[in-house]
Each structure stands twice: as C-alpha cells, then as structure tokens.
Amino acid sequence: MPVITCIDDLKRIYKRRAPRMFYDYAESGSWTEQTFRENVSDFDQIRLRQRVAVDMSGRSTATQMIGQNVAMPVALAPVGLTGMQCADGEIKAARAAEKFGVPFTLSTMSINSIEDVAEATTKPFWFQLYTMKDTDFVSRLIQRAKDAKCSALVITLDLQILGQRHKDLKNGLSAPPKLTPATVANLMTKWRWGIGMLGAKRRHFGNIVGHAEGVTDAANLGAWTAEQFDPTLDWGKIARIKEEWGGPVILKGILDAEDAKMALQVGADAIIVSNHGGRQLDGAISSIKALPSILDAVGDQVEVHLDSGIRSGQDILKAMAMGAKGTYIGRAFVYGLGAMGEQGVSTALEVLHKELDLSMALCGRRRIDELDRSVLMVPEDFAGRWQ
Ligand code: GLV
Questions:
Q1: Mean pLDDT, the chain, as a whole number?
Q2: Confidence of residue 210 (pLDDT cuts 50, 70, 90)
Q3: Whose CA is nearest to atom 5 of ligand 1?
Q4: Which of 22, 28, 54, 371 shows a CA-CA span of 20 to 30 A to 218?
Q5: Comparing C-alpha atoms, which of 29, 256, 282, 280 is closest to residue 158?
Q6: In this structure, are residues 286 and 309 in contact, taking their beta carbons and an 8 Å threshold?
Q7: Whose CA is nearest to atom 2 of ligand 1?
Q8: 17 pLDDT tier (thresholds 50, 70, 90)
Q9: Residues of each annotated binding site for FMN
Q10: Catalytic residue positions, numbered
C-alpha cells in the first residue's frame, strides 16, 4: 500500500490505472486550457498569514452549507462519467462522502442512476440538473430526484453548449468506450479497471438510457446529448425549474457579479462561483479571482460557494477566508476514485481535511467561522484591473 500524502499522489496512481480516454476527460480544459491552468495557479498567488502562540486545542472544520451540517466546507462536485473512472464510481464516491460527512452531488450525466445511488446510501445527496429541450424528460428527472429524497438541486448554467476539449475528440470519448484498435491497446494495460467494469452495475448513462424517449444505447445517446442540451435556457426557465423542484436550489457556473445579482432575483439558496473547471469558456477568469467581486455584489444576501481549482486543504482555507461559505472538489475526488475506488475518495477527503485543519491551526484559527480575510495576504492587483 503506497503512502499517500497529497492529492497529487492519488493523481499519479489514477493515471496508471484509468483508461487514457477517461483520464484525459477529467484532466482536460477547453481549447488552450488557460482557464483550467489558472484556476490552480491563481490560488498560489495568495499567501497565508502565519500566527503563533494561539491555543490550538479543540479545533473543528465542521460548518454548514445551505443549512446542512458538513464535516468540512467541501462538497463533491457533479462530475459526468464518474462511473467510467472506476466501476460503480458514483455509488463509491457517494458512500465515501456520506461516511466522511460531506455532500455528494450526482451529475445528470452520471453512469449510476439517481435510484442506484439512493439505494446504496442512507442520507440525502444532491442532484445536478442539466436542462434539456425535452422538458418532459427534465420534469421526470426532477421528480426522480424528489422521489430519491435529494436535499438540493444544483442547476448548471454554464453548459448550454459544450466547450471543445481537444483530447475527447481525438480519443473518441464514449461510454462505454468504443473498441477501436487504439482503445483496445490501452485497455489491455488497465486490467484492474477492466475486471471491475465486468461486474459494474451500469456502463451507460444511467439517468438517461431507458428514461429519455428513444435512447436505448450509447450510439444514439451521443447524438441525443448534442441535440438535447437546451440552448434557450434563461432566468425565466430557471425560476420555473426552481418552482417545480420546491426545495433548495444551488446555481452553478456564476462568474460575473451581474449574473450573481440575477441568481439572487430568482431566489437561489446558494450560487457556485465556477467556470466548470476550465472546461467551458477558455480565457475566462479563474474562480478564485472572480470570487471577491461576486462576494462584494451579493455575499451578504446569498451563500456563495466556489468550485474550480481546489486541490488542497490550503486552497479550501483560502476560498473560505476570502468569504466563500463552501467549496467543491471534482478532479481531486476523481483522482482518488480512479486510483483506489471508494477508499481512494475517502483518502482524498482525509488528505484535504488534514491540510485544512493543520493550516487553520498554523494561521491561529480553530473554527471555520473564525476565518476571514485577515488570514490572507492577497496581492494588491490580485483581481486585476480589467477594462
Ligand atoms: C460535463 O459536465 C463536462 O464538463 O464534461
């Protein structure tokens, strides 16, 4: 058993074990990947203020996100195709999150279905919704999430159309993988993954195949998704979905203060400052750089969360000290999952927790509600002067 000390250790094992096509899917940004890179490197520009001779006993990272108790301010982000990184990936990740005491968010584009995850867990999870042209299908998805007792609906706003990720096109990404000579050659080196997949509950998009009109296999699924994401999504539709859902709504993909104000108007319970992990608009600002202006605009009226770029507990600390009320990890848990299944996700959460806890202590803070901007040293020109 290798000694895992950081998220990068899990990433190295994940790279060895997961099929190339799915590693590349997770590890890509769109086009030049500038935003993908800056999501991470912009965290590095912020420094933490070391404080000493402060009583460090009785520390806790526990807090709340949308009024729900969390062991630390981190939710598992919705990640498409998670069940291709590792057999039954969504079930395993949801179980690890439940054991740790943090929310799991199931993607519409998951392999395990809403019902699979509900059956395998004992506490409510969150469901992420993509809006599709087929409104009956969307209504059925919402009803299924209600029936599964999901405790929040996360509506993704930044993927009405798909940003181009070059590697996915070159690899011919599909679920399950299409068996081209190149794919077969790569899969032959991934025996652990293959054995797991033989016993997997599902190998197709579980929320869609058999639920959406006319979708029975992966071949026509590809065409269906390209056609079905709703390019006409607007604030009016979001308000109607919120009404149909009737529970807590989190709006994901806000990167601009004006959009944050619109989210407030439709009554979002929380917003997620996000650029989709750098997978959509390449050239967009990093999430951590967008956070201050969004907090200034709406931070006292709605819970502001952050995703995109979190790879360590120190990153979580920086986002929280900046004023976020919660963070999300996507790639950081996928690395763990692809490396070691459920245990790997638990390890990822433990690594992040330890980093967060110890770094808070070294900043002289014992609780999440003691974090504020005085913990940080932020370069004067951090947010940049943009015209
Ligand atoms: C879907 O959410 C993706 O980024 O591929």
A1: 95
A2: confident
A3: 80
A4: 28
A5: 280
A6: yes
A7: 80
A8: very high
A9: 78-80, 107, 128, 130, 156, 252, 274, 307-311, 330-331
A10: 276
